[in-house]
Write a structure and sequence with these properties.
The complex is a heterodimer of chains A (299) and B (273). Chain A is of the alpha+beta class and 299 residues long. The chains are: A alpha+beta (299), B mainly alpha (273).
Chain lengths: 299, 273
């Protein structure tokens, strides 16, 4: 998405992207002002604001894009069967964690019925293979990894549990929002346009295939097949409707306060700035994404 | 070397002074990394806030109080001490006999020493995935990491201790007709004991040093876990620093306790040079 924004920048802006292996390091880089914007799990961004870190959520990264994976030979058939079992979540500040709590509530289960443990997403598939957990709920491609590896199966996609699930959001430092509005605007527009490109009704699948190739090689050093597996099932992850919706965020906030992940309830405006999303023109897939020139250099 | 006698009060005043200087430097650093942020509201009014990146000593003290009052301080300290002492005890139970044997039998030494020296420099951090794969996410995985940290210094220290016993001790004992296990029990072991205790002290220090690594993934209690856990929270670096301080203070306590061992009559002679 940042490469797209760079490729199509009218002003010649280069958005330099940087991959982090874990959220704490990324959070520290953000707090220490070493990075200006980041994709981060939504409740963690809200928690940062609650703890006085000057950042705002300005846009979403994607919709859905997670799944609840269980061991292939597991006896679990439906959500309620997970009672008494151990399920890994990426962080307590993840929407996956809040979703598990929301589901337990909806299905009339006790809040502690499922044992939720925090685990770094890259470790989840191997923990499942070793059967130290019954299942895990996390963003892709970690579900596809167990699926393709042959030791995991997907119990639910997000569309079955919480349609239009919000996982990662675009977080920008307040200082940048104040001082470099056009830059942030350009980034948001670029993300929206790249989303439209990936979700294009006609050539969307073709675009996703190329995106899997480029992203797999250039940024994540992951098997493009893994990413392709996910991206080519369009209802597994979506890149449209990325304006932060107040009602969903209010619900996330309620769940976060209820499960004591965030101490105080905040108003939507305290942690979200939708002005860039409002000022944006209609997202459109401009031209083809040229993989050969995608780059990650310093501005 | 300055031979002026150390006055009694200097022994506690000097370290306190150095600690005070460090606290001031820490505070200045936190203050130096602060910055002003001016935000403009929708109505055009501006507001300036001072943003702190780094917790100061004054932020850390309430964090210590918070940990003490909600019971985490005691619970986590007990959990960490239990893991470190268990891992250390297992390391000593296996490491001392093995070290004695290898120190005494040249062939055993030749067989295991290269392996011990090869495994010793591998950071316990590198063993985490193997620990989790073998022991799952529970106490045993953390204890295993601590065991690894403590085991190699004990084996190496004990081997060296036995090897450096003056040959004259052994020869004279043999002349008096002491041989076999008796020789080992009455001459070799006591002669090596002071150095073995020194290696135990080092090993316990290393065991405590790796507690953060050991408690990083597998468990959900302990001071090492507290560091990792607080780091995962939003902006609770005050808790991270508080945990670091607690780990340091307990480290001093552990070292002090093992030093008491060195003063026991049975081993005291070894240190009188």
């Amino acid at each position: 998405m940042t490469s797209w924004a760079t490729e199509h920048s009218q002003a010649g802006t280069v958005f330099q992207s940087q991959r982090f292996g874990d959220f704490p390091t990324m959070k520290e880089a953000l707090i220490a002002r070493k990075i200006d914007a980041t994709f981060m799990i939504a409740p963690l961004a809200m928690k940062l604001v609650a703890d006085g870190v000057p950042v705002k959520i300005v846009y979403l990264g994607h919709r859905d894009g997670s799944a609840l994976t269980i061991a292939k030979d597991s006896s679990v058939q439906r959500f309620e069967d997970l009672a008494g079992k151990r399920v890994a979540v990426p962080s307590r500040y993840s929407n996956q964690n809040l979703l598990m709590r929301r589901m337990m509530k909806q299905r009339g289960m006790a809040p502690q019925a499922i044992e939720l443990v925090e685990m770094a997403p890259p470790d989840m598939a191997s923990a499942l293979a070793a059967r130290s957990i019954e299942g895990y709920i996390v963003g892709e491609p970690h579900n596809a990894k167990a699926e393709i590896g042959g030791y995991g199966r997907i119990l639910y996609f997000m569309k079955d549990l919480w349609p239009d699930f919000i996982s990662c959001v675009l977080v920008v430092r307040q200082e940048i929002i104040e001082q470099r509005r056009p830059l942030v605007q350009e980034l948001v527009q670029g993300i929206a346009d790249s989303g439209a490109w990936l979700d294009a009704p006609e050539e969307g699948l073709d675009h996703r295939k190329r995106a899997a190739e480029v992203v797999g090689k250039l940024f994540y050093n992951q098997d493009p097949k893994l990413l392709e597996h996910v991206l080519l099932q369009p209802d597994r992850v979506g890149y449209s409707r990325l304006v932060p919706p107040k009602d969903t965020f209010d619900e996330i906030m309620d769940l976060a306060v209820e499960s004591k992940v965030i101490e105080r309830r905040m108003r939507f405006e305290e942690y979200c700035d939708t002005s860039f999303a409002s000022a944006m023109r209609e997202p459109r897939p401009l031209v083809a994404f040229p993989p050969s020139t995608a780059r990650t250099q310093k501005p | 070397m300055n031979t002026r006698p150390v006055r009694r009060y200097e022994a506690w005043l000097l370290p306190l002074l150095v600690a005070a200087v460090l606290l001031v430097l820490w505070h200045v650093y936190s203050w130096w990394t602060e910055y002003d942020l001016t935000t403009t509201a929708a109505d055009g009014s501006t507001e300036t806030r001072r943003i702190r990146i780094f917790p100061t000593p004054f932020d850390t003290f309430p964090a210590l109080v918070e940990l003490a009052s909600d019971g985490r301080l005691l619970r986590y300290t007990v959990a960490s001490l239990y893991r470190v002492l268990t891992g250390f005890a297992v390391a000593a139970l296996i490491g001392i006999p093995l070290g004695l044997w290898a120190g005494w039998q040249k062939r055993v030494y030749l067989a295991i020493n290269p392996l011990v020296q090869g495994l010793r420099p591998i950071s316990p951090l590198a063993w985490i995935p193997i620990a989790v794969l073998s022991f799952g996410i529970q106490d045993e995985a953390a204890i295993f990491i601590i065991f690894l940290g403590a085991f190699f210094p004990i084996v190496t220290g004990t081997m060296t201790a036995v090897q450096s016993i003056p040959l004259v001790y052994v020869r004279s004992a043999q002349n008096f007709g002491v041989t076999g296990f008796e020789l080992f029990r009455r001459v070799v072991f006591p002669a090596a004991l002071p150095q073995i205790i020194t290696s135990l002290r080092m090993a316990l220090g290393i065991g405590w040093l790796v507690v953060v690594a050991a408690e990083m993934n597998a468990v959900n209690s302990g001071l090492g876990f507290l560091v990792i856990d607080a780091r995962n929270m939003g902006n609770r670096y005050d808790l991270v620093v508080a945990a670091m301080i607690i780990i340091g203070v307990i480290g001093i306590g552990l070292d002090w306790a093992v030093r008491r061992l060195e003063l026991l009559d049975e081993v005291r002679w070894g240190f009188r040079k």
